[in-house]
């Protein structure tokens, strides 16, 4: 019963003090292949809509940042935007775990090749990743004594020009990189364990991982119940927390996935929970 519209970043503008977009009405149709239709684009102010959902995959580049500025201006005009553009901009999906050290495995963020090498020497095996990556791209497993270690570091930190995150390697990855979904500060009762394919250490579905839905472990629930209210209070309606073993490795706020896989395997309607929490958020006074 709700009217749906869709727009992309390049269709969002600031003109005469108002944030507007060339939005297309989207209608769902009962067809296995052509499951939606789009109307011709028409100009709308974002305040015309009850709510705007910001969902854009990384990379978190400057165009992404500019989009959050436009959406932030729309919020000042009275638009409702989720996730809150200021909170998205302020929560790097890799660095955000530093706010919750009780749930984070040992990590390091630096440009220094010497510091990265020392981290590997200390822990034996580490995982290196860029701060703006997604889907398992540009993630390296680095081991003490690896003759390619210098090349790995140079490739990632661009000879000291880029920051790199190092995390202690967690062997529990063999049991899956678990996605714990938080919706409106509440924990979805199932997690999707993304299990690496043979010969791979990355569990990301985009990297060939296999998704297996499971009930939350006590530790998963502890993490979700601790992080959920804190992040929801900042306007982060939908959050995907990545957990390996007992440790949080990322806090995803841009475009968390796994609704479909959890629903298909458990029957729990994650999308319905999201819709309910979204309508509740919109109904609350601004």
Question: What does this molecule look like?
Answer:
There is one protein chain. The chain has 286 residues and is an alpha+beta fold. It has seven helices and 17 strands. Strands 12, 13, 14, 15, 16 and 17 form a six-stranded antiparallel β-sheet that branches. Strands 1, 2, 3, 4 and 5 form a five-stranded antiparallel β-sheet that branches. A four-stranded antiparallel β-sheet has the order 8-11-9-10, with helices on one face. Strand 6, helix 1 and strand 7 form a beta-alpha-beta unit. The mean pLDDT is 93.
Short account of what is shown:
With 286 residues, the protein is α+β, with helices and mostly antiparallel strands. Helix content is 28%, strand content 29%.
Please give the structural blueprint:
Layout (H helix, E strand, L loop, with lengths): L3 E3 L5 E4 L2 E11 L7 E3 L3 E4 L6 E2 L8 H16 L3 E2 L2 H6 L16 E4 L2 H11 L1 E6 L8 E5 L5 H9 L6 E5 L8 E7 L2 E2 L2 E6 L14 E6 L2 H15 L5 E7 L2 E6 L6 H8 L3 H14 L3
Parallel strand pairs: 6-7
Antiparallel strand pairs: 1-3, 2-3, 3-4, 3-5, 8-11, 9-10, 9-11, 12-13, 12-14, 12-16, 14-15, 16-17
The percentage of residues in β strands lies in 25-35%
Q: N-to-C SSE series?
A: EEEEEEHEHEHEEHEEEEEHEEHH
Cα radius of gyration in angstroms = 20 Å
Mean pLDDT: 93
Q: Spans with pLDDT under 50 lasting ≥5 residues?
A: none
Helix content percent band: 25-40%
Separation, N- and C-terminal Cα atoms: 23 Å
Provide the structure class: alpha+beta
Number of strands: 17
Number of helical segments with 4 or more residues: 7
Shape: globular
Quaternary class: single chain
Largest sheet entry:
6 strands, antiparallel
